[in-house]
């Protein structure tokens, strides 16, 4: 008896489902396409880019919901944002920004210089929880003499100031809504939040009163799909139109063969490193560091761990940057040389090291390949898998309890981390620090390029770490979709220029 | 009966208290600082300190434990550290996916397992029995995430009858929501149906061997009459026990299936919360799951009382 009743309930559920299917089929192709559904791997914890490091936040809100004084374009160049122009004083300490006319927030509030002052002062305040507080540390004062003008005075000249103001962490917010931006983001961008179905998707819709050029898309939905095989299925089933970062590189081949899709391989700011903990006496010896660099075949790691996606690098700099210098020849793959250097350093009978690996596949898979390559020169490595939380407290902070770790440093133009005295690498070079100071004090682009190249060379020759490869951005999108960023100079999915081809 | 109920309720409370303590201790010794995870590698020590103070991480563990339990007793589960919204709100949203998913999968499993299990028992050692048991063996052997992927490939990628995953909120109507739960429920139900049909079969066979069944047959009752009047009711006791265990397992087991179908359920939430070290969320969800298991066991006990009307009080002291 009981089973019969259950059977009826089930049949009813199935009939409802079938009816719904029919409904979908009927409306499917009826209207022209001005909406986009994009898959992203991680759901942001909240939507306030000024309070939290999660890249997942910027991947939804940057340029779409929130804008800054400047913006970084698809090529990584600084463009005017909410400031339409600026002048820089001769001593390079004072920046005078002229703001755009007719800019309003999503809630109708107008945007003027007092919002800029509020946003910057809030980000650099003592109680600020901005994840990139360092971007604002050089600011001495922010003044708003009239509604259209902002004057920012720096403590010392800073070559990257305009670039820094283009980061997602430096976007402009309204005093009235700043504290509730985490759940109800109110920015100046061309899209506004329509709905956030927690755990499933965020939907943005185009606003009518945007100050600039209106985007072609009426609405954009970001769907959260963490599982790599679910991402493939969602693309194949047509649930999502694009997946800007595929979770697993091995899945790309099947899309390359499919005319409905286009595979786009771009570059990112992610320098993937084998970090050598130079707080350990062993790695204070440059011979040992160089020996490890010689023991590693970078291309084999790119092929084995990333299925060929990625570019081997020789220093801490992104290959797409104009100031990039190819230094992969400084410490080429040469196991014999590695062995002899180890013997010279007094480790002829081998070494035992601990390598801590965070969750991404480049680290877990790369770690196994590196362990095999190190074994070939007599170094035994114990692989320890850790979660991000544990990596942060054990490796990055705290006691720095590790010998080796693999991690991709995804912040743009972050070579300066080698000058930080308390950084987890434990690296220190007076020569390098001097170059970084010079860069800070130099405005001339050609000179800056030379200095950046000098900095790269110092790191390569010191073997400050083993520089493995530049992480690739491996995306898949519908063949008729145009305007998505191919490269990722910053972590963003700027959809303001995206449209469907007929 | 009343003292029996009081006794069970006391056990329930004790189990929950033990669970809460265990969860809290385990989470306290887990490495990883929520503030560090939220602010990432670029954070300055000052912003970290500011966030830690904001999250109340500077209090001692004992104070944090009693704050939590005190709050729970008043119905206040605290705020999620990463999402910044009340945990109760977060969990309620997710339960709207996981609980219906588990219920649908459970109903499916029961609807399949009861008739087929009884059918196999009645046709013991005949081709029908072998067929049913063969399928059940297969259902046990297939992992549910793999079966889920297979369902997606057939019904979403090839036939386009269903979406490959995701969830249409209930607010948009029952149809789309139920539809998005159907494939995951099938994936989840398969192994449960397989287990349950085996239990039903052996429980039915056990009852057939009882003296009273032989007596019933001897006094001339027809086979179907014996089945419906004597066998089914008595066979239900062990079956209900397993069903109770299975329902609790379904809620927890939904984690894997929710990932395959990217459903915004409790499983996904707890995974995300663990990785983010959102301790408040993890604590409360685990407590909730423990509570659910205890509650289901309690309901199973009550169901015994209905199926088997003999008195319980003494036996359970």
TrEMBL record, chain B:
Q: Which PROSITE patterns match?
A: ABC_TM1 (PS50928)
Span of domain ABC transmembrane type-1: 95-304
What Gene3D superfamilies does the annotation carry? MetI-like
Entries under InterPro entries matching the protein: BPD_transp_1_N, MetI-like, MetI-like_sf
Task: Quote a single Gene Ontology cellular component term.
Answer: plasma membrane
The entry's localization annotation reads:
Cell membrane
rRNA processing is among the record's keywords: no
* Topology within the bilayer: Multi-pass membrane protein
Which keywords has UniProt assigned to this entry? Cell membrane, Membrane, Transmembrane, Transmembrane helix, Transport
Listed GO molecular functions?
dipeptide transmembrane transporter activity
- Going by the entry's taxonomy, the superkingdom of the source organism is recorded as Bacteria
TM spans, by residue?
12-30, 99-122, 134-161, 181-200, 236-257, 285-307
* Stated family: Belongs to the binding-protein-dependent transport system permease family.
Q: What is this protein called?
A: ABC transporter permease
Naturally occurring in which organism (per UniProt): Hwanghaeella grinnelliae
């Amino acid at each position: 008896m009981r089973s019969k009743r259950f059977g009826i309930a089930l049949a009813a559920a199935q009939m409802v489902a079938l009816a719904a299917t029919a409904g979908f089929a009927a409306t499917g192709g009826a209207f022209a396409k001005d909406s986009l559904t994009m898959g992203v791997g991680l759901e942001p914890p909240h939507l306030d880019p000024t309070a939290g490091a999660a890249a997942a936040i910027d991947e939804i809100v940057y340029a779409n919901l929130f804008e800054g004084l400047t913006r970084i374009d698809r090529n990584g160049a600084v463009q005017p944002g909410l400031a339409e122009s600026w002048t820089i004083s001769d001593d390079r300490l004072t920046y005078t920004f002229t703001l755009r006319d007719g800019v309003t927030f999503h809630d109708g509030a107008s945007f003027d210089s007092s919002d800029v002052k509020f946003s910057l002062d809030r980000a650099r305040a003592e109680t600020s929880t901005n994840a990139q507080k360092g971007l604002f540390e050089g600011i001495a004062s922010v003044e708003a003499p009239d509604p259209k003008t902002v004057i920012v005075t720096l403590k010392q000249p800073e070559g990257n100031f305009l670039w820094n103001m283009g980061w997602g962490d430096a976007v402009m917010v309204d005093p009235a809504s700043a504290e509730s931006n985490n759940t109800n983001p109110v920015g100046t961008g061309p899209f506004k939040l329509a709905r956030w179905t927690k755990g499933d998707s965020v939907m943005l819709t185009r606003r009518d009163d945007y100050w600039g050029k209106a985007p072609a898309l009426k609405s954009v939905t970001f769907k959260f799909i963490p599982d790599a095989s679910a991402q493939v299925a969602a693309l194949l089933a047509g649930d999502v139109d694009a997946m800007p970062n595929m979770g697993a590189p091995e899945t790309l081949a099947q899309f390359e063969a499919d005319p409905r899709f286009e595979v786009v391989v771009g570059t990112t700011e992610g320098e993937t490193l084998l970090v050598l903990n130079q707080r350990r006496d062993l790695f204070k010896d440059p011979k040992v560091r160089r020996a490890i660099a010689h023991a590693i075949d970078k291309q084999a790691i790119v092929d084995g761990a990333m299925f060929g996606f990625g570019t081997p690098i020789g220093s801490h700099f992104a290959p797409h940057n104009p100031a990039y210098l190819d230094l992969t020849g400084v410490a080429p793959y040469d196991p014999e040389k590695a062995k002899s250097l180890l013997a010279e350093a007094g480790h002829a009978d081998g070494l035992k090291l601990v390598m801590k690996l965070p969750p991404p596949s480049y680290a877990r898979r790369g770690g196994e390949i590196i362990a095999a390559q190190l074994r070939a020169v007599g170094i035994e490595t114990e692989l320890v898998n850790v979660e991000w939380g544990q990596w942060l407290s054990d490796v990055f902070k705290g006691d720095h309890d590790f010998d080796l770790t693999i991690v991709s440093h995804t912040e743009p133009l972050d070579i300066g981390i080698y000058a930080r005295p308390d950084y987890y690498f434990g690296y220190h070079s007076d020569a390098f620090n001097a170059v970084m100071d010079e860069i800070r004090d130099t405005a001339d682009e050609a000179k800056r390029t030379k200095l950046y190249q000098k900095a790269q060379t110092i790191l390569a020759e010191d073997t400050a770490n083993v520089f493995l490869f530049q992480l690739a951005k491996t995306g898949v999108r519908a063949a008729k979709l145009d305007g998505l960023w191919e490269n990722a100079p910053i972590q963003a999915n700027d959809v303001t220029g995206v449209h469907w081809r007929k | 009966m009343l003292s029996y109920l009081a006794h069970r309720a006391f056990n329930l409370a004790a189990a929950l208290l033990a669970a809460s303590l265990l969860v809290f201790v385990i989470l306290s010794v887990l490495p990883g600082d929520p503030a560090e995870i939220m602010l990432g590698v670029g954070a300055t020590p000052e912003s970290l300190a500011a966030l830690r103070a904001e999250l109340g991480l500077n209090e001692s563990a004992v104070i944090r434990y009693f704050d939590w339990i005190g709050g729970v007793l008043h119905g206040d589960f605290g705020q999620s550290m990463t999402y910044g919204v009340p945990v109760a709100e977060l969990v309620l949203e997710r339960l709207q996916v996981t609980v219906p998913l588990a219920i649908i999968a459970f109903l499916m499993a029961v609807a399949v397992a009861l008739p087929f299990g009884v059918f196999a028992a009645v046709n013991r050692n005949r081709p029908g029995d072998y067929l049913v048991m063969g399928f059940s063996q297969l259902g046990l052997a297939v992992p549910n995430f793999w079966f889920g992927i297979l369902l997606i490939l057939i019904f979403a990628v090839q036939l386009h009858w269903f979406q490959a995953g995701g969830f249409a909120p209930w607010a948009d109507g029952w149809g789309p929501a139920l539809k998005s739960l159907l494939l995951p429920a099938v994936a989840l139900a398969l192994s449960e149906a397989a287990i349950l049909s085996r239990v039903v079969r052996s429980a039915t066979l056990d009852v057939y061997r009882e003296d009273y069944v032989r007596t019933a047959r001897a006094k001339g009752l027809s086979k179907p009459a014996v089945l419906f009047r004597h066998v089914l009711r008595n066979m239900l006791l062990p079956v209900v026990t397993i069903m109770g265990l299975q329902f609790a397992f379904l809620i927890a087991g939904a984690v894997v299936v929710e990932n395959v179908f990217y459903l915004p359920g409790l499983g996904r939430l707890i995974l995300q919360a663990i990785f983010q070290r959102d301790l408040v969320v993890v604590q409360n969800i685990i407590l909730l799951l423990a509570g659910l298991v205890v509650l289901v066991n309690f309901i199973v006990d009550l169901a015994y009382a209905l199926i088997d009307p003999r008195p319980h009080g003494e036996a359970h002291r």
